[in-house]
Amino acid sequence: MLVVVMTGLAVLAVATARYVQESHIGRGLRAVRDSEEAAECSGVPTLKLKLLACALSGALLGAAGAPLPMYLSYIEPASTFNLLYAVSALAMPIIGGMSHWIGPVIGAILLASLQQIVTVTISSELNVLVVGLLLVVFVVAAPEGIVGLVKRWKSSSK
Amino acid sequence: MEILLKVDQISKHFGGFTALNGVSLALKKGERLGLIGPNGSGKTTLINCISGALLNESGQIIFRGQSIARMPAYQRTRLGIARSFQIPRPFRSMTVLENLLVPLSYVGGITGKEANQRAEDILTGMGLAAKMHQGCSQLSQVELRKMELARAMAADPQLLISDEAMAGLAGTEIDEVLAILHALNQRGITIIMIEHIMQAVMSFSQRVVCLDAGQIICEGTPSEVVADPYVQRAYLGD
Question: Model pTM?
Fold first, then answer.
């Protein structure tokens, strides 16, 4: 049951991201990121779009937290508001790449499986280190993430 | 002639600095207005107030019979005020063509193939057809300026404000941009041109307004303004 709920949420989140990217909202948001003033002067309601982006991402993250008590079978402040959740939520899109909806999906699968592998084979403490190291490596060496690396590789092999 | 834009006694302060002090201005439809003045005289502040990037503190701005002084910038763009920026602000993550798709979809509601076609037409008119699928980082300075004008045109404006679109350009490039602005004016678009290059302002404008220290010190035909002693003093000192 829990798997179904979590998968459903993941699909919903990715579908939302994909819809936003391909609709005119995505173009507007990209314009806002590049230059807010120029976006506003191109007719983009920047405040509305920023509020929408904030509300959408907040809602999705909030929804993602809902099955957590069921998953852990208990709930207490220290683990619920664990910093690692926030760091992972940032690390996944940064590692996967933020220019395409598939980026965070790749980042999430990669990071979560790596963390599980490290937890099982080495130690549960070390998996935090993995997140940190990967984050540093990607920010320094590939700020566009895996999606950016693939794009660069494609354009250079053309 | 119908009045398109009326600016009535607007003021703007930045802390203790008075950037605009009771500026009034009326613009007829189809007119070419030059806005000159020394650095820091309030030219850009004035057009920021008109385009909505800044809100004026007192006074009224009427555009097409509507009061727009409290309207957010994007609504003013939809109403027909477009501008280019003194320092070009392209959408750097997009190609030149995609830059134009932003105003096309957000102002005109045009998307898909039709939008692409419109963007191509506008870019061809600006002489940027060869560059349309390139990123903005690969454009030269004059091409960036043209792209800004093209993006402003994609919003299908009635009033185009060109904020120093020729700053830093060479002689022939200035002529190219001037020719583009003339062509747009021919199609009925009212243009406010802010420029430091005197020769360009004087040949382009039908009427010139000179600002100094946030006030209009002189208004008239180009030759009248150049001959005005206040203008000469503002530019050259006593």
Answer: 0.84
